[in-house]
Design goal:
Strand order of the largest sheet: 11-7-8-9-13-5-2-15
Helix content: 10-25%
Subunit structure: Heterodimer of a large membrane-associated beta subunit and a small pyruvoyl-containing alpha subunit.
Order of helices and strands: HHHHEEEEHHEEEHHEEEEEEEEE
Shape: globular
Protein name: Phosphatidylserine decarboxylase proenzyme
Catalytic activity: a 1,2-diacyl-sn-glycero-3-phospho-L-serine + H(+) = a 1,2-diacyl-sn-glycero-3-phosphoethanolamine + CO2
Family: Belongs to the phosphatidylserine decarboxylase family. PSD-B subfamily. Prokaryotic type I sub-subfamily.
Strand content: 25-35%
Distance between the termini: 46 Å
Structural class: alpha+beta
Number of helices: 8
Cofactor: pyruvate
C-alpha cells in the first residue's frame, strides 16, 4: 500500500508542467533570494566556493557552483581510481550472471540501464558502485581515471526520485530514469559511468572538450540532486577495503585500484 501511494503521488507531481515551472524559476532572478536560505539549510561550506554568494544571480547558478582549485585534491597514484563526485555511497556489489544488480532489496537490470544485453555483457561479474548526490552536494562530475571516452549515449525521458525512498519504493528508477552513459577506456579495461537524472529536472550537461580525460578532470554537471553509477569489468577493479556504505565520499578520494 505504501509503495502504491508513493508512486501515485510522484506521478501526480512529476509532470511536464511542474518540471517546467521549477526549471524556469531556478533560472530566474527571483530565485536569487533563496540562495542564502538554501546554503544555510543544507549547511553548505561556503569557504570552499569559488567566489562568494553575491556573485550568483540565480539559484541554478549557485547549484552548479565551482569550487576553489585546492578544495578537492585528486589522488595521483598511478593505479588509483577516485570518486567522480561528492556524494553518499549508497551501495556496492557485484553484477550477477544475468546482468542484474540488487539495490535496497530490489533488482535492476544492467541491460536495461545501458540499453542492451551486448552493452551489459562486458560488466557481468564486475563491480558496481552507486553514488547519491543530495541537494547539499557539489554537483559537478569528474573523471575517476585517466582514459579515453569511447562512447556516450542517452536513454530515458522522465525522472523519479533517486534518494532512499525512491530506491526503496520507486519503480526501476536506476534503469528507467533519464540518463547519460559514458564508457571510458583506461589501463584496467573499460568502465561505464551512468549519470542518472533526478525528479523534475532532466539536465545533465557535458563540459569536457575532448575525449581524452585526465583523472579528476570535470566532465559534466547535474542541475539537480541525482545519482552516478560506476560499472567495472570483472577482475579489473579492486575496492579499497576500508570503504563502507552508506558513507560520504568526495571528488578525488580513492575508491579502488586498477587490477
Amino acid at each position: 500500500m505504501k509503495q502504491a501511494i508513493y508512486r501515485t503521488l510522484i506521478e501526480l507531481t512529476n509532470g511536464r508542467m511542474t518540471s517546467s515551472i521549477l526549471y524556469k524559476f531556478a533560472r530566474s532572478k527571483m530565485s536569487r533570494f533563496l540562495i542564502k536560505p538554501f546554503s544555510k539549510t543544507y549547511r553548505i561550506n561556503e569557504d570552499e566556493i569559488k567566489g562568494d554568494l553575491d556573485q550568483f544571480h540565480t539559484l541554478h547558478e549557485f547549484f552548479i557552483r565551482l569550487l576553489k582549485g585546492d578544495a578537492r585534491p585528486i589522488h595521483q597514484g598511478e593505479d588509483t581510481i577516485v570518486s567522480p563526485v561528492d556524494a553518499m555511497i549508497e551501495d556496492i556489489g557485484m553484477v550477477d550472471s544475468k546482468h542484474v544488480i540488487t539495490v535496497k532489496e530490489k533488482d535492476y537490470s544492467i541491460a536495461e540501464m545501458l540499453g542492451g544485453v551486448e552493452e551489459a555483457e562486458k560488466y557481468k561479474g564486475g563491480t558496481y558502485m552507486i553514488f547519491y548526490l543530495s541537494p547539499s552536494h557539489y554537483h559537478r562530475i569528474h573523471s575517476p581515471v585517466d582514459g579515453q571516452v569511447k562512447r556516450q549515449w542517452t536513454l530515458g525521458k522522465k525522472s523519479y526520485p533517486v534518494n532512499k525512498w525512491g530506491l526503496t519504493l520507486g519503480k526501476d528508477t536506476l534503469s528507467k530514469n533519464y540518463r547519460k552513459i559514458s564508457e571510458i577506456q583506461y589501463d584496467g579495461g573499460e568502465l561505464a559511468m551512468v549519470k542518472v537524472g533526478a525528479m523534475f529536472v532532466n539536465s545533465i550537461e557535458r563540459t569536457y572538450q575532448n575525449d581524452s580525460l585526465k583523472k579528476g578532470e570535470e566532465v559534466a554537471y547535474f542541475s539537480f540532486g541525482s545519482t552516478v553509477i560506476l560499472l567495472f569489468q570483472k577482475d579489473a577493479f579492486q575496492l579499497v577495503p576500508t570503504i563502507q556504505f552508506p558513507a560520504p565520499i568526495k571528488v578525488g578520494e580513492v575508491i579502488g585500484h586498477i587490477v
